[in-house]
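Practice problem: predict the structure.
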Amino acid sequence: MDAEEQGEAEPVATAPPASGGTGGGPAATGGTETPSDASEAESSSGRWVLELIGVVVVAIVLAFLLRTFVVATFSIPSMSMEPTLQVGDRIIVDKLAYHLHGVDSGDIIVFSTPANENCAGPPVADLVKRVIALPDQTVSLTGGRVYIDGAFLPEPWLPAGTADQTFPGPSGAPYSLHHAYRVPSDDVYVMGDNRTESCDSRYWGPVPESTIVGKVDLRIWPLNRLHLF
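Answer:
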């Protein structure tokens, strides 16, 4: 006789029905996600994605507006502004500066390359120089030093030992400073700090204020030469 057939079968104990339930009905299990819970989770996830997309779009628009109307970054490609700005330096230019106030003598500016600029080197869209004379001022040279309206112009930005090494440009044009030159209204006269290596207003004339991109406010690179102008 097989073991299954020995003796009477013992009754199987059954668990009492869940409290508040009906006998024989299924017992409720805790933590089970209902359709409404899943729908709320999906809705919350959808909102989070939309909010993230909104933040990214706003950030892109703000960055575009800032670069278009407020600030811009430029890299220095030449030695014309040494030692103030060196090759590879990166600068921040304030595009709103001259919408709020006028240009000042001594400002470092970025401006569109003049049409008659014919200096050696690859063509570039913009140049960076220092403002030496303002509209309607007269700039002249005596003994290699700069004079504005007959008064000596202190230039602490010049490299040591070069304060008397500003010479006229090579051409016979009036702006080359072989003679005193009166800056036209709405123009500024610019030079590089590295006078012996700078191709500037002495070579191609004054800069129309309408072509000024903005004022150089900050050198951001390299970090060890971070400087506010």
